[in-house]
TrEMBL record:
Annotated source species: Dyadobacter koreensis
Protein name according to UniProt: Predicted dehydrogenase
Lineage: Bacteria, Pseudomonadati, Bacteroidota, Cytophagia, Cytophagales
TM region(s), chain numbering: 12-34
Keyword list, A-Z: Membrane, Transmembrane, Transmembrane helix
Sequence ranges assigned to domain Gfo/Idh/MocA-like oxidoreductase bacterial type C-terminal in this UniProt record: 205-270, 361-431
A Pfam family annotated for this UniProt entry: GFO_IDH_MocA
Positions of the Gfo/Idh/MocA-like oxidoreductase N-terminal domain: 40-164
Gene Ontology MF terms: nucleotide binding
Gene3D superfamilies: Dihydrodipicolinate Reductase, domain 2 (3.30.360.10), NAD(P)-binding Rossmann-like Domain (3.40.50.720)
Annotated InterPro entries: Gfo/Idh/MocA-like_OxRdtase_N, Gfo/Idh/MocA_oxidrdct_glycsds, Gfo/Idh/MocA_OxRdtase_bact_C, NAD(P)-bd_dom_sf, TAT_signal
Length: 436
């Protein structure tokens, strides 16, 4: 294979706003520069929550070496390293607190990002600029602007970027989508996404000193710096706008992605409405406990409805977390990540059904080795769309009004207040770069 053009030292520093000045600047890794026998060396970035599944998933693959673990919390990092050694006798794993040092390591072929949401796009963009392929957890972005920049970076630097929505690799759900494309339930005009998860009162823990071992500046990264609180670190950041996107931007991304995939829409909606709020707990959460959103595609004559509920509730069609697709000849139910069933005609006669999973990590590694993004089940463009749909619903909720959106310009029409939510003020040096 031909080597890809190297990123110049000057342009890399300019594009990352000086973030890597303290480290040597990594050059683009040649597409053929994997280890012996096409062994891909992977670094897992963020190992407290989802990162544990990343470690487990890659460790099962014969052509992958989990080479480095990275986390700004050294207590958690060393715990994961110890666990890794115990599960993999004789294998050593390197540890780093700063992801920039991982990107400076030319022996790393790919990074797998499982940080909090506010780091996802920036970590992915820097990885692309450093010549690394990327698996990035859902949501691919914390706001719409940085999602678009991530797409541009993947294209410019010719990187393989997979979005962490594992349902895309489910053989059963691939079959379900094919049934809908082939007309099994007729004209599919509506998708409903459901996130009914148990989300209890988190209280309000106030502020306190930063715990030993945590690099809080690095953890905060591009977000606004706020006094340390256990309300943020390590999971409840999901419910604060500074770091997370509520449950529609958490569990919900699997379902927003499934809605768009099943409906066959490859653009953003033009009309968005949302309503909800906090009705149960007087706690530190900022994001709504309940949220109901509608996304309308007038040209395509399709609609997505999405609902988040946090507590006591009935299922719908047996679904608590999943999707329902409505067509002119029946409906199709998706439960979780690997099961679907269909009901046909006025009498709701049971139709095809299947339960079967897949290996999303393997799909990513296969694409990395082949240097072919067409192999990916969840390419970067779908990350921008499914994450962006959640962002649009949250913006309609936060502005408190129905919004009109232009999918081409990716801006709200005649609403500058709503447009302010499309990006954020970044905290230097953790700045999402312009990709030119």
């Amino acid at each position: 294979m031909k080597k890809e053009n190297e990123v110049s030292r000057r342009n890399f520093i300019k594009n990352t706003a000086g973030v890597a000045v303290a480290f040597s600047i990594p050059s683009i890794i040649p597409a053929s520069a994997f280890g012996a026998n096409d062994r891909v060396r992977v670094a897992v970035i963020g190992v407290n929550g989802r990162g544990q599944d990343h470690i487990k998933g890659y460790s099962k693959l014969a052509n992958v070496e989990v080479a480095t673990l990275c986390d700004p919390d050294d207590v958690i990092l060393q715990t994961r390293a110890k666990e890794f050694s115990e599960k993999n006798p004789g294998k050593k794993v390197k540890t780093e607190n700063d992801l920039r040092k991982v990107y400076d390591d030319k022996s790393i072929d790919a990074v797998s990002i499982a940080t909090p949401n506010h780091w996802h796009s920036l970590a992915a963009i820097w990885a692309c600029q450093a010549g690394k392929d990327v698996y990035v957890e859902k949501p691919g972005s914390h706001n719409l602007h940085e999602g678009r920049k991530m797409v541009e970076a993947a294209r410019k630097y010719k990187r393989i970027v997979q979005h962490g929505v594992q349902l895309r690799s489910s053989e059963a759900l691939q079959e379900a989508v094919k049934h809908m494309r082939d007309g099994l339930i007729g004209n599919v005009y509506m998708a409903r996404g459901l996130v009914y998860k148990w989300r209890p009162d988190i209280g309000n823990k106030g502020t306190e000193p930063i715990p030993a071992g945590l690099n809080y500046d690095l953890w905060t990264g591009p977000a606004e710096m706020k006094p340390f609180s256990k309300n943020y670190v390590h999971y409840n950041w999901h419910w604060h706008w500074n770091y997370g996107n509520g449950d529609v931007g958490n569990q919900g991304i699997h379902e927003t992605d499934m809605c768009m995939w099943g409906l066959g829409v490859d653009t953003f909606p033009e009309k968005i409405t949302s309503a909800g709020g906090k009705f149960l707990w007087d706690d530190a959460k900022e994001t709504p406990e309940l949220l109901t959103s509608s996304f309308i595609y007038p040209k395509e004559k399709k609609i997505i409805e999405f609902e988040v509920r946090p507590w006591m509730t009935n299922d719908e069609g047996g679904v608590g977390i999943g999707n329902i697709f409505y067509g002119s000849e029946g409906y199709l139910v998706v439960k979780g990540y690997d099961f679907y069933e269909t009901f046909l005609g006025k009498d709701k006669k049971p139709g095809p059904t299947r339960k079967a999973g897949g290996d999303h990590y393997k799909n990513f590694i296969d694409a990395v080795i082949a240097r072919d993004s067409k192999i990916l089940n969840a390419p970067v463009e779908t990350a921008h769309l499914s994450s962006g749909l959640a962002h649009l619903g949250n913006i309609a909720y936060r502005t408190g009004r129905a919004l009109t959106f232009d999918p081409k310009s990716e801006k709200f029409v005649g609403d500058e207040d709503a447009n302010t939510y499309l990006t954020r003020k970044y905290r230097a040096p953790y700045t999402v770069p312009e990709i030119v």
